[in-house]
Amino acid sequence: MPDSPKVALLTFAVYAVILYNVNSFFWKFVFVGYVVFRLLRTDFGRRAVATIPRDIAGLRLLISVKSTINGLFKKDRPIHDIFLDQVRQHPNKVAVIEIETGRQLNYRELNELANQYANLYVNEGYKMGDVVALFMDNSIDFFAIWLGLSKIGVVSAFINSNLKLEPLAHSINVSKCKSCITTASLLPMYQAAVEKNLISDNINVFLATNDIDGRHRSLERDLHLFSKDEPAPVNELNFKSVLCYIYTSGTTGNPKPAVIKHFRYYWIAMAAGRAFGITKPDVVYITMPMYHSAAGIMGIGSLIAFGSTAVIRKKFSASNFWKDCVKYNVTATQYIGEICRYLLAAKTCPEEKQHKVRLMWGNGLRGQIWKEFVGRFGIKKIGELYGSTEGNSNIVNLDNHVGSCGFMPIYPHIGAFYPVRLIKVDRATGELERDVNGLCVPCVPGETGEMVGVIKEKDALLKFEGYVSDGDTQKKIYRDVFKHGDKVFASGDILHWDELGYLYFVDRCGDTFRWKGENVSTTEVEGILQPVMDVEDATVYGVTVGKMEGRAGMAGVVVKEGINVEKFLSDITSRLTENLASYAIPVFIRLCKEVDRTGTFKLKKTDLQKQGYDLVACKGDPIYYWSGAEKTYKPLTEKMQQDIDAGVYDRF
């Protein structure tokens, strides 16, 4: 019978004492061989040996990243200054290409464009600490603007370009921005929020593009008036200054602006790129939104960290994906699970075998389609990772292990040195499990729990910078976790830790779910539904849908007796489409006879979530599904439920 890890380690300790007192080389050799033999007889020993190459690779990456970052901390240079190193090394190399317009700039031209934006805003009286909101789609100018603003110490707030009315107003207002830069195509969305008095008309609005009606100042029109030279340096700017705000739903409430400092931006871009082998010759294809950290830091950040070339498409297109990759000689690109599914669902084309893409990195590639995806498109390296914009709990899958988003070494007591841990939670209530001493219960290999990151105030990489609001920051911190007085960042994500140390994303806890690559706040959607006249109560939750990634939004609604259901559905359709981004509109509406509540009068979502959109489990409650093509809700029939479950219908 194999020894337990504890017995093996105790045996090792005993033999270590014996070896220390034995002078004969032969007997030392025998003892060492025997100890190794005993360790390998244990299940733990075999697993530990199997994972040594992976763990060593992870350790080497960690040492390399920390060494680079520590060196930059000593130099204390802001990120735009680091970017100038790339400009000096290869000024004439193509830096960015914009697919829709055909526009391309080399490194010198890109830096000069950033300088013009910087000098324009200096002329407008902007100074260090001011905030400018960027409400824009993917473009060269999105990058050039925030890079230019960083040179004068102005903070850029990256606003989700899908937002409307109240969610848009919240993101603008919480940033405390002095002005907003948008485009002609997005201006109507912004103006609609202003007209409803959701956004103050005192916030200056600039258009990055030409203004057709002449009512707003056009940066594109005026930019040529400003110098391409570097703006006067701001002495207070350094590696620890605030660079931008990137919004995250976290697991509670409305989107919150996470504080991204210069060092954090560079660290994320450099660490992810180094983990997966991004280098100077790479051409990186960016189709994901640049207002998120995936494309906004890890994608476009490859220019700053490695001197790569970026090819920017306004929005992802399955039909153009491989054509773009071939046309622009793309070697690396990003994904989320939905992108992989859309590409697999698309018709075959010659370009999917002709491309030069060697690396795709991101998160959400499901284990069920991993091998099929790699096999069909011939991708040599999949770089699956897990992390959060604001958090300190980040992991990477270094060895292409199918379905895994990263790993933690399985050695006992590794938690004393490893900053990322899993702790046990009650999945039904979301409450932490604590022992008799009031401390959290750590998971061991084979168990499932919430990912947390140990906070160390004196270590910049392990410190939790948090959000603009300190109140929001405190909500994401657990205390007295592994010892009394300690603090950890609460990711709100549930992961499974297998026997070999690989980690797998399971679910989100809290008040958000992920759908179509975006975090959806249940409280935000409930806030839109509850004021509707015929709604007595409403609760929103995420449900699994067939083979699709993430969770689809579902609203359990209690309505007044005797209402006209057709008119009610029409009313909420108008309200939802006017106020919410398309991904946040509930896919299912359930007209509940009654919504159960907990003892504290909180809406009870657990049972509703388990029942999902199953007509039998919902016990006769009418359910309606969202037809994305017709932009309306339709009755869910048994046949349609079967089609949705089988993946035959997915046009939400």
UniProtKB/TrEMBL annotation:
GO CC terms: endoplasmic reticulum membrane; plasma membrane
Keyword presence, Nucleus: no
GO terms under biological process: long-chain fatty acid import into cell
Span of domain AMP-binding enzyme C-terminal: 524-602
One Pfam match: AMP-binding_C
One function term, GO molecular function aspect: long-chain fatty acid transmembrane transporter activity
InterPro entries xrefs: AMP-bd_C, AMP-bd_C_sf, AMP-binding_CS, AMP-dep_synth/lig_dom, ANL_N_sf
All copies of domain AMP-dependent synthetase/ligase, residue ranges: 85-433
Tagged with keyword Thylakoid: no
Top EC class of this enzyme: ligase
Catalytic activity: tetracosanoate + ATP + CoA = tetracosanoyl-CoA + AMP + diphosphate; a very long-chain fatty acid + ATP + CoA = a very long-chain fatty acyl-CoA + AMP + diphosphate
Keywords for the protein's UniProt record, in alphabetical order: ATP-binding, Fatty acid metabolism, Ligase, Lipid metabolism, Membrane, Nucleotide-binding, Transmembrane, Transmembrane helix
Domain of life: Eukaryota
Protein name: long-chain-fatty-acid--CoA ligase
